[in-house]
Amino acid sequence: MVKISTLFHRVDGFDETNTSSETRDLSDQLNDDQFLKDLLEPLLFDPGDEIVQAILHNV
Amino acid sequence: MKKSELNDQELVQAYIKGDQSAIESLITRHRSKVYTYIVLTIKNQQLAEDLFQETFIKVIQSLRGGKYKDNGRFLSWVIRIAHNLIIDHFRKEKQMNSISNDDTEVDLFNSRKFSDKNIEEIIVSSQIKSELRTLINELPSDQREVVLLRHYGELSFKEIADQTGVSINTALGRMRYALINLRKMINERELSLTVY
Hints:
The complex is a heterodimer of chains A (about 60) and B (about 200). Chain A is mostly helical and about 60 residues long.
């Protein structure tokens, strides 16, 4: 039976000086937010001014 | 200085100090995002209008009562109030054992807000909105909730987690799956969602 230690295993191609995981996460999040913005920006419904006046009248 | 040049914090402070017109500016500034959040969540125009009014009445009462802690996130606070009112509504509805609003479709595209546009703009705008609305409606409700709170309410994932009673990882996971599903639906249906 062959035992393989993963403790100091070097992943081929991994460059620790490159972008950190945290930065990548933030970058992913910004990309996702931009995707949502692009997608949902046109989806905006305006309830109109009358309803605003109704609220102001009711309070 | 014009009201439109003031930020939310300044308008809130002006209202608290007695400037009644400041609250009108705040509602007008955020009305579309708040209304869209509500209407996409509950899918019923009449009920959305009622909850929209209730939301801002509660906002005004809270401001008057000194219950608002200003941290520069007025819109997020309003969306959280709207979210709670929606939850309250569904709880009451569940208690009354009435049918879900999911089956009630409304035509938002024929309302008065499009009356000043030309026919072509109305058609293009309506088609895009209709396609987008279908995409959002087809998301599982927990994923849709995260998407709407994030985009329209500008809530952080911590706030979304608190608001929906789940962990941050669950909120992040729901968003991840929502985006995967949205991208998949767009690709499968070969949708063109750009305004031209």
